Sequence to fold (158 residues):
Amino acid sequence: MSRGRSDNTQVASSVPFDNEGTEFDSTDVQGALEEVGISASPGFSFGRNGNLSNNTWLRRPGNVPSNRAGVTIPIQNPVIKKISCSNRNVDTYDILIYEHDGNSVNLTLLTTVTVTSARGDIFDVDIPATEGRQLAVRLGNSGSVRDLGVDVVIKGNA
Fold:
């Protein structure tokens, strides 16, 4: 008895996929599987404790300033999908996400999100980034941000 695929076995590309109400474009299972890709989950974390002034660079784990040695993007075709942030105080503040080549060389602003009268927020975004470059995060305009944490979730391919 053969254990190989028989002629009447469906393959993923011939199985319909209902993409209504999803972020998928595909209408077959194979296409949907390929769209899933991989993600850097739960994300890359940045933070800084204490009272923070405008234009303060957040630090990556290990207390390294992210504009000096950011988190290297390790996946192909990276797209930032979520940015979440929180701080101790209710405030309005901007979070700026950058990529660079290391030590602030070729700093490129990718996006800015604004928290309005809250301790934090979650932002669904769709921002292309560059594999191999480093992510950095900076606090923009703010009032009284204290103990800020920012997480960035990136999706891409292996």
Strands lie at 38-51, 59-60, 64-65, 71-72, 76-100, 108-128, 134-139, 146-157. Residues 29-36 form the longest helix (8 residues). The longest strand covers residues 76-100. The mean pLDDT is 88.
